[in-house]
From TrEMBL:
Coiled coil: 71-121, 163-197
InterPro entries from the UniProt entry: EPSTI1
Protein name from the UniProt record: ESIP1 protein
Entry annotated with the keyword ATP-binding: no
Source species taxonomy: Eukaryota, Metazoa, Chordata, Craniata, Vertebrata
Start and end residues of each stretch annotated as Disordered: 141-161
The gene coding this protein: Epsti1
Assigned keywords, A-Z: Coiled coil
């Protein structure tokens, strides 16, 4: 323990503080006595309710039943709205996936058309190269016309006719392929239009069914509310005082 200093208490100062505190307490008691509230005077009134205990209990039970029924209706309405929103979201996702699949199918068909056209062009190019190789070493048309017809001119005519037939055949096949692709495009466009119309009709039917369901629910709710109002009006007593009843 370290060093410390002992201070002698001042008795005079202590007595002065005690006197000041006692005086303040006396003043507080005197103020309370002076500001003490007086007696309360009320006008006599007749207390008690206008309904009997049984009627009050019945009204409370009816209010409780109505609140339970309203809570049940709110829960059912919330579940129905949630289910409708989920179904709408599912239909939306299905429509998006269907559009993606259709675009992918169109892209595949276009790539197939381009591949076929490139294949035809390559085949045509190779055929022309082959015919040009066959033409090498054969006499020209002018020399064939001037000279007497021989086996070389006959071979050149055959080669020229064969080349002409090949070109006509290729042109015909190319035209047929273009017509076929055009018919497929028209059929695809018609199918897309029919699917859009069917989707629009399905959406309208769904909206109509939802509106019908909402109308039926609203009608049932109004009927139930009217029934509860009539029942409450039947059991609600008149606003008259009956002696001996307790509120």
């Amino acid at each position: 323990v370290g060093p410390y200093v002992l201070v002698t208490p001042n008795e005079t100062r202590r007595k002065q503080l005690q006197q000041i505190a006692k005086k303040e307490l006396d003043d507080l008691e005197q103020w309370k006595k002076e500001h003490k509230p007086g007696p309360i005077t009320l006008v006599p009134q007749r207390l008690g309710g206008n309904e009997s205990e049984a009627q009050v209990r019945q009204s409370q039970q009816m209010i409780l039943m109505q609140s339970k029924y309203q809570k049940k209706q709110k829960r059912e309405e919330y579940a129905r709205a949630k289910k409708a929103a989920e179904e709408a979201e599912i239909l939306k996702k299905k429509a998006i996936q269907r559009e993606k699949a259709e675009r992918l199918e169109v892209k595949k068909r276009q790539e197939e058309m381009q591949r076929r056209e490139m294949l035809l062009e390559d085949q045509k190019h190779k055929t022309n190269e082959l015919l040009n190789r066959l033409d090498v070493g054969l006499p020209k048309s002018e020399s064939c016309q001037i000279a007497n017809p021989g086996p070389e001119s006959t071979a050149w005519k055959r080669s020229h006719a064969y080349k002409q037939d090949l070109r006509e055949d290729e042109n015909r096949r190319l035209e047929e392929m273009k017509q076929e692709q055009q018919r497929k495009a028209e059929l695809m466009e018609l199918k897309q239009k029919q699917e859009d119309e069917a989707r629009t009709r399905a959406l309208k039917n769904e909206q109509r069914s939802c509106l019908q369901s909402l109308f039926i629910f609203y009608f049932i709710l109004r009927v139930n509310n009217a029934f509860l109002d009539r029942l409450q009006n039947k059991i609600q007593p008149n606003n008259t005082y009956h002696p001996g009843y307790t509120g």
